[in-house]
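A quick word before the example. In earlier lectures we treated sequence and structure as two separate objects. From today on, think of them as two lines of the same record. Here is Wall-associated receptor kinase galacturonan-binding domain-containing protein written that way.
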Amino acid sequence: MSTILSAISFVLMFLAAWPQASAAVSGPAGGILQIPSNRSLAHCITRCGDIDFSYPFGIGSGCFRQGFDLTCNHSTKHPKLFLGRSTVQVTNIDSSYGIVLTPIIFKLATRPGTNTYNMTWEAPAKGITLASYNTLFIAGCDFDVTLFKYGTGDMVGSCMSRCAGKKAPTGGHCNGIGCCLIQLPRDLAAFRAKLVSTNTTATQSDWLHPGIMALVSSDPDYYSYNTSDLFSSWTNDSMIDGAVLRVAIMDQQSCEGAQLKNESYACSNGSSCRNS
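And the structure line, produced from the sequence above:
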């Protein structure tokens, strides 16, 4: 399974939000707002389990740009990395481009007589978005899916899956037979997917899998043509190629004001700043 991070060409983007607190040497929870020296970062942790990271991401006071803090959980057999104090797990990270890979998975147990189900996802903090080159895959039988921008009701995509009275296939293309997909049209800070069953008389035992499974992946071609891995992911989450999140710097009032502060201005050649 390919890793999307090796082919990423997007740049870290500086988003200046209005209004925001004025710049300072340090921010909430130990985040820093100036460009640090290598010496000042020498004591910082740069690895959690098998995941390496570097500034602006970091763990501990003085080791990360405000909004880029991480947590390494050592309570499991293999340490797990998370964004801040959220439950959003990080499975890969590219510090240079400000992007992280995270699993976004939904497993719905369907019930006879119930025809509407909802799946929601929200970014854990301001400045984090689900990148537009991700795709939502939904595996199961006889349902219509509508994807909305969460909180606004704006529809951003739809698809349908049919099984024609048969069990869901275990392979082949994700082409509307036991599986459908929605390409995200733009970056999203949150979404809601509404699933409407078109066969409310079926029981879970009628299908090959107990309900509906959905996931967001940054590798649309892989799952579009390899649905066997998509169905295998029902019981084995490690099979899933995660979604890409963008993490933007949002600690200044405006681009114009940020450019006047050389000690904290985060944009470099090849990156951009825009007012949000």
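Notice the following. The chain has two domains: 11-98+248-266, 104-244. We will return to this example when we discuss secondary structure assignment.
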